[in-house]
């Protein structure tokens, strides 16, 4: 399953945007209002839970400074990645596309597609406000 957000315009340079996303504590600002729990476990991992949902631990999987940051599920049960691709528009403005990629059976994909789409769209919308 692949879910991509529309491009989010951020009023920060490509480098500033990357550095913001690379500091995992900043993801708290991007989370939906129905966040139930958010905790940075270390510089490469954080966990969050939305009301009525299980806790999810995300960890940095890969990064290309100032261009891309890849986060992935720390658990093998639900293998997925959340990738931020950052492009420069001008010196103090950048665009970010968030991509969610996961390997799920058809039934699971059907159940989680709408909540995941809403979640990554909320992250993207809130990214425009930083």
UniProtKB/TrEMBL annotation:
Domain of life (superkingdom): Bacteria
Entry protein name: Carbon monoxide dehydrogenase subunit G
């Amino acid at each position: 399953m692949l879910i991509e957000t529309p491009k989010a315009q951020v009023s920060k340079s490509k480098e500033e945007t990357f550095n913001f996303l690379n500091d995992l504590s900043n993801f708290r600002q991007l989370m939906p209002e129905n966040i139930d729990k958010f905790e940075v476990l270390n510089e490469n991992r954080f966990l969050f839970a939305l009301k009525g949902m299980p806790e999810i631990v995300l960890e940095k999987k890969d990064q290309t400074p100032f261009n891309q940051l890849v986060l992935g599920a720390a658990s093998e049960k639900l293998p997925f990645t959340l990738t931020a691709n950052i492009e420069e528009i001008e010196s103090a403005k950048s665009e970010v596309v968030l991509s969610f990629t996961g390997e799920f059976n058809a039934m699971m994909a059907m159940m989680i597609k709408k909540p995941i789409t809403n979640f990554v769209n909320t992250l993207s919308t809130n990214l425009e406000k930083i």
